[in-house]
Amino acid sequence: MAQAKSGSDRMEKIVSLCKRRGFIFQSSEIYGGLNGCWDYGPLGTELKRNLKDFWWRRMVRERDDVVGMDGSILMNRQVWVASGHENTFTDPMVDCRNCKSRLRADQLPEKNGRKQCPVCGSFDLTEPRAFNLMFKTYVGATEDESAITYLRPETAQAIFVQFRNILEVSRKKLPFGIAQIGKAFRNEINPRNFTFRSREFEQMELEYFCRPENGLELLEYWLQERLRFYRDIGLSSESLHVHRIQPEECAHYSKGTYDIEFEFPFGIQELEGVAYRTDYDLNQHQKASGKPLDYFDEESKQHFIPHVVEPSAGVDRTALALICAAYDEEVVTDEKGKSETRTVLRFHPRMAPIKCGVFPLLKNNELLVRQAREIVDQLRGEMMVFYDETGAIGRRYRRQDEAGTPFGVTVDFDTIGENGPALRDTVTVRHRDSMKQERIAIKELAAFLGERMR
Ligand code: GAP
Description:
- The chain is an alpha+beta fold.
- Helix content is 30%, strand content 29%.
- A hairpin with a 6-residue loop joins β4 and β5 (102-104).
- The longest helix is centred in the first third of the chain and has 20 residues, at 42-61.
- Residues 154, 156, 186, 188, 197-198, 201, 203, 205, 270-273, 310, 312-314, 316-317 line the site of glycyl-adenosine-5'-phosphate.
């Protein structure tokens, strides 16, 4: 219980910091918001971009067996019929007859073996019924049955239906993958835990096509690759958990699924699913469309439907995990002996929204300001930098600590040679985590910072 309380306190502080510093805002806030939808502010946008860029680099650019695609959000309705989403992409829903809340039947608390409404405590609940999570819409001017389609609930199906085109243009041989990052939409019954379960979110998905005999081995390979990715963006091994889904809980077509989970303040929850989906999806689309989605193996001269292993991650969930993992508070004492609590986001420099703060010691000294601005211009092409000249230098450091900026560069009187030639053209680099400072030559700054964030 104490742990739950400290978890919810911590989460409250994180949500408040996200708003205060411009990571994440409620969508349409001035109109009272829209449940399950979120807007990312300047820092959150940079964080998400760094995450997506690193995923793309790891999964596509650094490999020669993966290519990218960018599919449309709206697709022909038949895609969702064939994939099974129209009939089976549902969550069990119940209504509370007392307070009229709509609730997910599989997430209800129980008291004395009876399911209870978490809002009002009543036991007077309806029988569960299936609620389809896809957002329905109409394409074109006529709102009739023939115009129905859905906002995609996952990016994966665009990859399956373009498999043939991409195979032909990329001239890849098995095994190879197609990667995509994009928006997905689910009309979740209970959006909750800040951005963790949203109605609009982004996915980073890879469909890795292979020969049937290599599927199980590739499932293990991708699990390890994806764990390496999470460690490389700064999530500790201790905070990551692997949950093997029991065969009876897996989708009927899956021959094995792992969930990669993270210890959020509100509990251990899924970040990513790594699933061996066999040849189910390509088979379904081949049958429904009547178009061949097979692969011709030149060695064996055989046609077959490739199997697929799918690592499917959420951008928003991972961004939230990065913020939760980075959040820290510590008591620090300044040179005058005064103690205060320092809030710091200890992002890995790769993920940090701003890489470097640049500060002239005084804003009313033209030489200091000019030199600081020159440093900003020099670094800007390489990384996200932030110039700040207002307030005491300690305050400016604290503001960047809260934004998670790993390095602070201060231009002082030594830099402009006022205390002799020895330290001329050098700056103080202050490290966010240790708060230690060192002197670096301006001409070496870009390389010094660059090698710490690649
Ligand atoms: N193509 C497979 C697929 O979509 P999923 O487990 O339903 O599998 C994959 O979703 C990932 O997408 C999840 O692990 C999670 O990170 C993210 N995701 C799913 N639903 C989400 C939601 N409502 N809000 C935020 N992220 C979500």
